[in-house]
Design a protein that fits this description.
Layout lengths: L11 H18 L7 E6 H12 L6 E7 L3 H15 L8 H15 L38 H10 L3 E2 L10 E2 L36 H14 L19 H11 L7 H4 L11
Parallel strand pairs: 1-2
Antiparallel strand pairs: 3-4
Helix pairs in contact: 3-5, 3-6
């Protein structure tokens, strides 16, 4: 059986897009680029770092904002949270989320010295979720969280530690600030509008939950190449027989290297004509 090609979004498109743009520009204007820049955020920020790490001679300057550099750890963490979110009774509705945010804000907003609706000192916010626990831990309405829903939020508020190394020796992925002001509910993008809506197939932004569809599709189509699998039956911290494949994809898609030596090497230039 012939080997399937790796997904183009693993990194090849960065080089191909640059070279094709250079070709088109030269054909149109009769000369090559004078300077070349890359700007991106989120996965585009990951790609920006990848451009600096893998194709350092292609760009004079690179701006990478809020980069999803460890995208493998990201989808594994999202999958871990999705498993709790979609477990029986684990779904946290927008109404419950707003109730949680109100209690957290009341406790932690002023810890930065001013009550302004922003928790600017999240490290000082140590929130006890039992403050919003439903009586007996059973779901009794929109003003409290059941034990299963507290488990969802606790999962989101803790890092994911791996039993193996991702690219560049990464062994953990950070927690979300789930008990210090993170808002997963103002739009349906992150967790969906309902437990049933979260798993609508195929995944569509604003209908299904991004945490579920992104992690599920990464598992099925990028890692395992088996559409019958489900992130809900997968262990992100210990992928078992898929561990080597997760590591291979991490090596392809993550941009977590801190070695920018080649990109930082001369020649340097200072362009003062910015107008």
């Amino acid at each position: 059986m012939s080997r399937q090609p790796e997904p183009v979004h693993a990194g090849n498109h960065i080089k191909k897009t640059h070279d094709f743009a250079a070709y088109i520009a030269k054909r149109r204007y009769g000369s090559a680029f004078v300077h070349s820049y890359f700007i991106g955020g989120s996965s585009g920020g990951r790609q920006a770092l990848m451009a600096a790490q893998r194709f350092p001679q292609d760009y004079d300057g690179i701006i990478s904002t809020f980069p999803a550099s460890g995208i493998t750890g990201l989808w594994l963490q999202m999958g871990r949270i999705a498993k709790s979110l979609l477990a029986p009774g684990g779904y946290v509705t927008p109404a419950k989320g707003n109730a949680l945010l109100a209690v957290v804000m009341n406790q932690c907003d002023a810890l930065d010295g001013v009550a302004d609706g922003i928790i600017s000192n999240p490290s000082a916010c140590v929130f006890d979720p039992t403050l919003i626990r439903c009586p007996g831990g059973v779901d009794t309405g929109d003003t409290c969280l059941s034990d299963a829903q507290i488990n969802t939020m606790t999962t989101a508020s803790t890092p994911l530690n791996f039993s193996f190394d991702l690219a560049n020796g990464i062994q953990t992925f950070p927690a979300y600030n789930a008990f210090t002001g993170a808002d997963f509910w103002s739009t349906a993008l992150a967790w969906g509008a309902s437990a049933t809506g979260a798993t609508i197939e195929p995944g569509v932004n604003g209908k299904s939950a991004f945490f579920y569809t992104f992690s599920n599709d990464m598992l099925r189509f990028t890692v395992a190449r088996d559409p019958s699998l489900s992130i809900l039956n997968f262990t992100p911290a210990d992928p078992g027989p898929l561990t080597a494949r997760v590591q291979a994809v991490s090596a392809l898609m993550d941009s977590t290297s801190i070695d920018l030596t080649q990109f930082a090497a001369p020649p340097f230039f200072l362009d003062t004509d910015l107008g």
